[in-house]
Specification:
alpha+beta, Nucleoside Triphosphate Pyrophosphohydrolase, 3 domains, six-stranded mixed β-sheet, five-stranded mixed β-sheet, 5 helices, NAD-cap_RNA_hydrolase_NudC, magnesium, hydrolase
Length: about 260
């Protein structure tokens, strides 16, 4: 399986989700044997790479946003996500961050090493918390300011140095919507390759405060309860979509 990315887009057949074969790759100037293997010591035929952002798709193929493809990829979605993260890691670690020497592949693990100063660079994973706040049967959902057409979803944010996941939940909730929460309960986690997050999701009970949005992060935040119109929420393939659907107020149905 050959995963070729152009930015956050994956090359697939125009009429489906078939990945390019070696001939198509070579037509783009990509030698399959030079692509990065997705695993160390496992299935060397699963490879990945990034190409230039101005590259054109070959006849019969198209570059499509990976985020939009996840629902179509089904069980192959996590593999495509890993391929993207590995390709992005290689793209952004061509040179040593200490001495600028070209990096080399380690021979015993998935790692890039500097032959000059010995720096080791592993694929980056950035932990992020997600929390769905409940007040009785109502849910707090927010629309993020960065995305004009964003759906309403649970709050989320990256964990900062020195924080626990729980610390990050309390800090992000207070920063983004001015609320206090209690009774955090772990829901689940998901690798989210945009670009290299690990989403760790919780539910929490409302403990006090009035909604006060952080305008540079949150466009709107509201309580949604039984009998009220419910907004569009994230797709089922995302942990945000599963988190909200698992905690819908009584009588509420969404697609």
């Amino acid at each position: 399986m050959n995963f070729i990315f152009r930015g956050d887009e994956l090359l697939v057949r125009e009429d489906g989700i078939e990945l390019p074969d070696a001939t198509v790759c070579e037509g783009l100037g990509v030698r399959v044997e030079s692509m990065q293997t997705i695993w160390f010591g496992r299935d060397p035929h699963q490879r990945t790479t990034h190409i230039a952002r101005d590259a054109e798709a070959p006849a019969g193929y198209a570059f499509r946003k990976l985020r939009a493809l996840l629902s179509e990829l089904g069980e192959h979605g996590p593999l495509a996500g890993r391929a993207f993260q590995i390709a992005e890691w290689v793209r952004t670690h061509r040179f040593c961050g200490v001495c600028a020497t070209p990096m080399q592949q380690a021979g015993h693990e998935l790692c890039l090493t500097c032959p000059s100063c010995g720096l080791h660079a592993y694929p980056r994973i950035s932990p992020a918390m997600m929390v769905l706040i409940k007040r009785g049967d109502a849910l707090l959902l927010a629309r993020h300011a960065r995305y004009a057409q964003a759906r309403y979803t649970a709050l989320a944010g990256f964990v900062e140095p020195g924080e626990s996941i729980e610390d990050a939940v309390h800090r992000e909730v207070e920063e983004e919507v001015g609320l206090k929460v209690r009774d955090l309960r772990y829901f689940g986690s998901q690798s989210w390759p945009f670009p290299h997050s690990l989403m760790i999701a919780f539910t929490a009970e409302y403990a006090g405060g009035d909604i006060r949005v952080q305008e540079d992060e949150i466009a709107d935040a509201q309580w949604f309860g039984p009998g009220e119109p419910f907004p569009d929420i994230p797709m089922r393939e995302s942990i945000a979509g599963r988190l909200v659907r698992a905690n819908l107020p009584p009588g509420v149905r969404v697609d």
